[in-house]
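Format is sequence with structure; example below:
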Amino acid sequence: MAAKIPKDCNDIELGTGSRVRLLSLSGQWLNELPPDEIADVKSMIGKLFVIEEVDNYGQPWIRKSWIDSIEGTCHGHSIALEPHEAKCVGGQSNLPPLKVILNCTSGYHAEIDPVVERLIAGGLTYIGIIGKDCAKIEDIIDEIAVGDGSNPRSVLTASHPECSLEDAIELALSLTGEHAG
């Protein structure tokens, strides 16, 4: 049996990298979550997301993570969408490359990892890192992009230990080719 083609509420085809607005959530699974997680998940409604994957059954998946800086923890939810729950707001083909400058004033913290994973899943093409531990952080980001090797993602990374934020932004804007924009 072939996987169904994922579509949104207007019957527009979706794929990995499609940008959607979450319109609603349905299903018993939501009511089975702890109350604080229900509030977090419901806060996703109305927000924009990137389809991170389409599974073998044709279900498009989105994800959001929440960082609790006080407790030093991170939790998240991945959600498979039904057509009536999402509206396509444009594919990735007409959008400029996603570039980020990470200004690490206090060095590496493990909380960076899930944020970087989400950026990569959302189509990140370039990340420049400045500040304390920037070379170490660049290596960690490269490892996140490659993963276990079964689905490596291409992200241009650069660390700039002596670079100002303004210079790092200027450098990112000056990139050419697939990273132009």
Summary: The chain is about 25% helix and 30% strand.
